[in-house]
Amino acid sequence: MTEMFRDKVDVALTVNGEPVEARVPAGQHLIDFLRQTVGLTGAHASCEHGVCGACTVRVNGEAVRGCLMLAAQADGAEVWTVEGLSDSAAIADLQEAFVARNAAQCGFCTPGMLVAAEELLSQGGLPSRAEIREHLSGNYCRCTGYEAIVDAVEDVARARGGEDVARARGGKGAA
Amino acid sequence: MKASVGGYARASSLDHALQLLASAEGAGRVLAGGQSLVAAMNMRLSTGDLLVDISRLSELSGVSDEGDTLRIGALKRHADVGRDALVCAHAPLLAEAVHYIAHAAIRNRGTIGGACAHADPAAEFPACVLALGATMHVAGPHGSRAIPAEDFFEDVFATAIEEGEILTAITVPKAGSGEAQVIEEVARRSGDYALAGLCLVKRDAGHRVSLFSVGPKPILATGAMAALDAGDLDGAVAALAGELDPPSDTQASAAYRRHLAGVLLRRAVARTEGGKA
């Protein structure tokens, strides 16, 4: 009866707005599918057990670990990687802030950082530095440390209108 | 490393999932959010599994108010548990626990049922459902059964779920007026496994205290509970030290974990009394 289980699975999804159809090995991670089959090498495969965050991509509007999701599970999903978010200019301000604040050195963690940070920023408001740190706690950077990254995310939160939110709250959010 | 998988099948209904599990003849493995299972497969702790993907079964993902209890579908994801209005109102312990679970991206996919079925001794939700006195609902080829949380967790990664069964829902008693529910844990960094953690539920019927990351499974600290019922916090801390046998590892010694348990109990009690420890 085990023929009900497949070692190859047909999937149809969209990646960065483009439809993709493929037959994927049952155990293949989404991140390997994106990197090796689709050719999008922006997000990185690193620790492969969900700890480092380098493989973070957006699936159905949420940041997820590309190494802890199977490609087979992405059938029907809407996937965005750093390439698509760059090309669409959706995170152009965040990328500029990373440059301005020197928040990337070797750049290995940066695609994952950007996707994780964008998820927080998309929730609106002005997150505190502690909230930014907490949201990025699952993304490791081994070069710059985190101050510059938190600075960059904070800058974007302010620039996107968080200042107005802080004033509306009576300045509680300002720090 | 890369996962080594024997096969994959996506279940279209609970019945279909149960058929798939039965057909796997012992090699079946239920895949939900995958945030523990895929990591384990990547580390080759588990190989050759025939994966039964239940993550699309919407019938297992809701939260409903059943009068005196709240029914939480096994596929309710951690992030959704944390922002669910019914959970926040009637089982605030679960909502608070979400903040301690791993990281945001993992909370977006991991499920409460998966966390309980996986039964990692360092996981928050198993200890929460134990403290709440929850009931675990499983479906199998011979029908459904309900298992008290106290009988559900058996050992490291081992539960009362039998071969061919799937955890479908968890029911928790709704918090009474004046009931306090708090969780405290110590971890080296945000999202790390807890060195020790503790849940405290203070009800009219008495206190319930559970601990995690201090043994092979979540532990109900009945000695500490009885002392708290008697109003004896020092006695409860002493009782706790006696009823725990925590492991020593590279993260913390047994003595340190036992010490932390007492610290966490004092913090939790202080919070239920409206203060800070």
UniProtKB/TrEMBL annotation, chain A:
Coiled coil: none annotated. Residues 9-85 form the 2Fe-2S ferredoxin-type domain. Gene3D superfamilies: 3.10.20.30, [2Fe-2S]-binding domain. Pfam families: Fer2, Fer2_2. It comes from the Bacteria. Keywords: 2Fe-2S, Iron, Iron-sulfur, Metal-binding, Oxidoreductase. This is (2Fe-2S)-binding protein. It comes from Thetidibacter halocola. The lineage of its organism: Bacteria, Pseudomonadati, Pseudomonadota, Alphaproteobacteria, Rhodobacterales.
TrEMBL record, chain B:
SUPFAM superfamilies: CO dehydrogenase flavoprotein C-terminal domain-like, FAD-binding/transporter-associated domain-like. Keywords: FAD, Flavoprotein, Oxidoreductase. Gene3D superfamilies: 3.30.465.10, CO dehydrogenase flavoprotein, C-terminal domain, Uridine Diphospho-n-acetylenolpyruvylglucosamine Reductase, domain 2. InterPro entries: CO_DH_flav_C, CO_DH_flav_C_dom_sf, Diverse_Substr_Oxidored, FAD-bd_PCMH, FAD-bd_PCMH-like_sf, FAD-bd_PCMH_sub1, FAD-bd_PCMH_sub2, Mopterin_DH_FAD-bd. It comes from Thetidibacter halocola. Residues 1-177 form the FAD-binding PCMH-type domain. This is Xanthine dehydrogenase family protein subunit M. One of its GO terms (molecular function) is oxidoreductase activity.
